[in-house]
Amino acid sequence: MKKPAKVSAKAAPKTVPVKAHRSLCPINLALEGVGDSWSMLIIRDLMLRGHNSYQGFLRSEEKIATNILADRLLKLEQNGLITKAADPGDKRKFIYALTERGADLAPLLVELALYGLKYEPRANLAKEIVLDMQKNKQIFAQRLTRNFTPKTKTKPAAKKIEEPIEETLSLF
User: 96-118: per-residue pLDDT in tens?
Assistant: First the structure.
């Protein structure tokens, strides 16, 4: 019996393992990539509350367990929705940030917020923010993503949309 030829690590192309999916439905694929409600709350905290550390996520009012937080941060990173970098002030800690792919979830977060406000009478959000969201969801979502879109990527010229006044968005 002939032994298989050895392939050096340099010669073998790096391949990303193909992940099995339940189906190729775009809704299913998006949900598998984003994850669960904890993942969306982490994205919300990154996008809307300015949390970018493990401790910051733990301070959220939903009180995520440490093992679930660690698991979701890893999955969000593996799915390309967030990045993790060493904290320059303390190399033992990490700073998390949204990628462009993660920031593109802004319209979905706006829709989820409006849905929750419509069907959950206990939902709490400042009236002026709700009116701003309802007035023009697209512009509201663009304001959320403005800080996360990489500046190096050039996008085709689009119709100029009237930009609202710059403000800090700590909405939720």
Answer: 999 999 999 999 999 999 999 99
